Amino acid sequence: MNSILITSGNVVDRLWLHFSAAYIITGVACYLLYYEYKYISGKRLEYFMTSKPLPQHFTVLVRAIPVTDGGSVSDAVDKFFKEYHSSTYLSHTVVHQTGKLRRLLNDAENICTKLANIKSVRHPSGDPPGKFLGIFGRNDLVGKYQKRLEDLEENVRMEQSDATRSRQEVAAAFVSFRSRYGAANAIYIRQSDNPTEWQTEHAPDPHDVYWPFFSTSFMERWISKFVVFVASILLILVFLLVAAFVQGLTYMEQLETWLPFLKNILEIAVVSQLITGYLPSVILHFLSSYVPSIMKLFSTMQGFISVSGIERSACNKMLRFTIWSVFFANVLTGSVLGQLKIFLDPKEIPSRLAVVVPAQASFFITYVVTSWTSIASELTQTASLLYHLWGSCAKCCKRDDSKPPSMHYHSEIPRVLLFGLLGLTYFIVSPLILPFVLVYFCLGYFIYRNQLFNVYSPKYDTGGRFWPIVHNGTIFSLVLMHIIAIGVFGLKKLPLASSLLVPLPVLTLLFNEYCRNRFLPIFKAYSTEALIKKDREEQSKPEMAEFFSNLVTAYCDPAMKPIQRSSNSDDRTTPLLSSA
Amino acid sequence: MNSILITSGNVVDRLWLHFSAAYIITGVACYLLYYEYKYISGKRLEYFMTSKPLPQHFTVLVRAIPVTDGGSVSDAVDKFFKEYHSSTYLSHTVVHQTGKLRRLLNDAENICTKLANIKSVRHPSGDPPGKFLGIFGRNDLVGKYQKRLEDLEENVRMEQSDATRSRQEVAAAFVSFRSRYGAANAIYIRQSDNPTEWQTEHAPDPHDVYWPFFSTSFMERWISKFVVFVASILLILVFLLVAAFVQGLTYMEQLETWLPFLKNILEIAVVSQLITGYLPSVILHFLSSYVPSIMKLFSTMQGFISVSGIERSACNKMLRFTIWSVFFANVLTGSVLGQLKIFLDPKEIPSRLAVVVPAQASFFITYVVTSWTSIASELTQTASLLYHLWGSCAKCCKRDDSKPPSMHYHSEIPRVLLFGLLGLTYFIVSPLILPFVLVYFCLGYFIYRNQLFNVYSPKYDTGGRFWPIVHNGTIFSLVLMHIIAIGVFGLKKLPLASSLLVPLPVLTLLFNEYCRNRFLPIFKAYSTEALIKKDREEQSKPEMAEFFSNLVTAYCDPAMKPIQRSSNSDDRTTPLLSSA
């Protein structure tokens, strides 16, 4: 009797331990989130206050410019801004449709690359001159390419002069101001009585502008947004089918049915353990590695004006995809429709999750262990190496190796957040996963630190704008952990513990709301205080005059600049075709 | 055989007629909504461009002002705005806590009213002097009241001098600028690096300010918002119980059980028809008439700074209450929880509504007919008359009859929208209701026109800001009509018609989204174009100097102004106690 009481007491004590652990871990996580949000906000303000003058702080992108008959976009912009922003308006650059021009330039660049390849084969260092079997063929080829290149250059010059005429103007322009505060005035106060005209927004860094965006009309962009939305949903659902197939692989009988000739090998104990334990995760990782590029392609079609905007949107899509496809799909078994039906029964969600989540603990532990190798391959850059070797062999897809690689935030951040989600949700039900997740994070810390400092070169600097994505992902993981804990205590017939846990997600969401009001506006816009202080600091500096004269031409479309052929065509490192 | 085919053909034709009617009525409604939104936006801009200078266009309400130790709110405001808005900043008025002061002034006003009553009884025109039985008693009373009034005035003066000292300053101020554009700069661009400090918003009309709001602290306001939210939900649910009781009254047996002594009367045919047909609607109307005041009280506690803001919020609450309690509660029978459960089964909603809505058609026809009498009582102002008579008899609650009444938008607009909802939703299933609804609208048009031109005097002018509420209410009615129509066609086993109707709510919501982008911003803020044009127009006018000197004192709290007693206390029309 006593031993029964003691045993049941122990079990109950352990559950109350889990209960208090839920509160403690939530409190610690929220404290760390607050501290980090505050720290990064401070860094962002410091970055702004200590930066040298940047074109994007003084420039505004204006769209939906109404043009009167017979007038041009350029005249309309000039008139409007001289009328209403006379003291701060500096200059403007109208955007032109340059889709055709860009295609011509791409073709010309490809031909130059092929020419360079041929010439490098022709004069390799130390090759005997005996190899003239194909020299005559190569000479013809060189002549043909050079003729084609000259034709292309002629076309490009014609297109450029066409594009500068009014009929290829897009109703959009980059407008530059003499002060940051002047630019902010144009962005945050609606310009026109008709809200669909003279729409203004922040301009991106000139090197960060995604020029092909402007070559589509408004209707094409609207339709693209809708198509992209449907396509992302379809991709997520299709991936679920693949994940279900992967789950099915864990059954040896299935494999033996599909691949009977391997039956003998499969029956060896080691092989069967490897396949059932390791193979599903490997396949899942392999397939998942293609999805970031597809999501980035979708974001490209959605009409963003900057590469950083495309990557942030792709990061959000990848986060939703990763959490749904890797976590929920592997946890909720059954058909796709069956999985979606769980959301029609909100009351059943905690108990359902509390049943299925612990059941998949071993799968996810394996998934985390598999990810150690993907972290290691990040260090060795295996994927890039393989791609480079493939490119050298095939001679068809040669990547531009002159620029250093840059960090793919849209694939890395969601992956890190996924492991955060796994750690937090399995913390209550299966704490065994924690050491593996911690090893992943430790490895990741050192490896990413090395990569970011020594290997990758940043393509753009958003000033911390990816942080809110991380914050929101972590809040979501916390609330999911609470829901699972409520379900677990419900299943263990401890309604008191269940109901005492209900305030926890409410408090977490209130905390998130506070952070949204306290910090998020800093990531969307700079304040009057900061803008005016910075403007006053720089007013008297002599280098501002030079900056403003450069600003006038900062936002010219690179495709519109006059091209020049490099005279020294033996030099492999200089691009043959470059803009002035 | 032929007759069967013809009959079924007729039935099918009628259904297709209803189907096309759904499309036509939606198209006509959307066209009218677009035209009206455009017209009212145009009127709003015209109102702005033709208005004389108004204090609220030049003033900004600043809240959450950070105060350094030893400093005052006034100094902090002055320093901040001279630093960052030096060219446009004019003056500021700090808000003080005046709750106690207002209570003292109310008491003094009440005593003055009582004194005036006594004196009017003492010297009624033409009364014989024989009524001196109570004169000595009245003299004592007059002396007592006058002594009390002097004490109160002394207290008021002391409180006013206290309040002007720093310790009763609220961290909020009205800041005035020299131009509308300057004020807009302060509102739409975040002022401080810390988003929770120096929060700015539009200031209301000085006469429209709801001063008691400022006397509560930030935490009190936050808690009030939460309490108000819960209280409105509770009110709506409680009202549903009352509505269920009303439904029960339609059963004569219930009445005979509760009131057995009336059995003989109830058995008369006319009486029983009157009771079952008319009484439920009358009771519903009577109870509903108290709810607007309760909702306005809730809005008052929510922390709005202007009376127009309170009424707009009360209008939204009343709209939700009216639609839920009068429409849904009477349509979905069963317990409150049973009714709420319908939302957990989204797929069942169309078919469920298609069954229950037609069943209540007769109830709503009666409801519309009853409302004709409430429209008529609007014309005769019966409620005000009864209240005035009651006040004269009771001598206790005498209303201030010196000010003309004003339109209660928060109760009238939701009522009109309810009849729009009834007309649109019953249009498909029971078109018999349409003539009654049209009579209501015709009566309403003439009666409200008369009231607004000849009877009511506006308390405030929002410039059309109630229109988006009407637009959203109508869009909701249209979508509800579509859902019911989809359910009806599903029940009649016409899946083709059902699925052809599905694009209709989608298109309606897309239309609403377009209107939200095209027109709604005009109702939230004026554009740079309008502000700068208006500023330039007035720059050279001589009356602006006088306007600016008045602007400096426009936002003083009326409770803080020095009081003066009117010397001629026989004059009944002049208020005895008035501010300078």
UniProtKB/TrEMBL annotation, chains A, B:
<feature type="transmembrane region" description="Helical">
    <location>
        <begin position="321"/>
        <end position="344"/>
    </location>
</feature>
<keyword id="KW-0812">Transmembrane</keyword>
<feature type="transmembrane region" description="Helical">
    <location>
        <begin position="226"/>
        <end position="245"/>
    </location>
</feature>
<feature type="transmembrane region" description="Helical">
    <location>
        <begin position="469"/>
        <end position="490"/>
    </location>
</feature>
<keyword id="KW-0175">Coiled coil</keyword>
<keyword id="KW-0472">Membrane</keyword>
<keyword id="KW-1133">Transmembrane helix</keyword>
<dbReference type="Pfam" id="PF02714">
    <property type="entry name" value="RSN1_7TM"/>
</dbReference>
<feature type="coiled-coil region">
    <location>
        <begin position="142"/>
        <end position="169"/>
    </location>
</feature>
<feature type="domain" description="CSC1/OSCA1-like cytosolic">
    <location>
        <begin position="57"/>
        <end position="212"/>
    </location>
</feature>
<feature type="region of interest" description="Disordered">
    <location>
        <begin position="561"/>
        <end position="580"/>
    </location>
</feature>
<feature type="transmembrane region" description="Helical">
    <location>
        <begin position="15"/>
        <end position="34"/>
    </location>
</feature>
<keyword id="KW-0813">Transport</keyword>
<feature type="transmembrane region" description="Helical">
    <location>
        <begin position="416"/>
        <end position="448"/>
    </location>
</feature>
<feature type="domain" description="CSC1/OSCA1-like 7TM region">
    <location>
        <begin position="225"/>
        <end position="489"/>
    </location>
</feature>
<dbReference type="Pfam" id="PF14703">
    <property type="entry name" value="PHM7_cyt"/>
</dbReference>
<dbReference type="InterPro" id="IPR003864">
    <property type="entry name" value="CSC1/OSCA1-like_7TM"/>
</dbReference>
<keyword id="KW-0407">Ion channel</keyword>
<dbReference type="GO" id="GO:0005886">
    <property type="term" value="C:plasma membrane"/>
</dbReference>
<feature type="transmembrane region" description="Helical">
    <location>
        <begin position="265"/>
        <end position="287"/>
    </location>
</feature>
<dbReference type="InterPro" id="IPR027815">
    <property type="entry name" value="CSC1/OSCA1-like_cyt"/>
</dbReference>
<keyword id="KW-0406">Ion transport</keyword>
<protein>
    <recommendedName>
        <fullName>CSC1-like protein HYP1</fullName>
    </recommendedName>
</protein>
<dbReference type="GO" id="GO:0005227">
    <property type="term" value="F:calcium-activated cation channel activity"/>
</dbReference>
<dbReference type="InterPro" id="IPR045122">
    <property type="entry name" value="Csc1-like"/>
</dbReference>
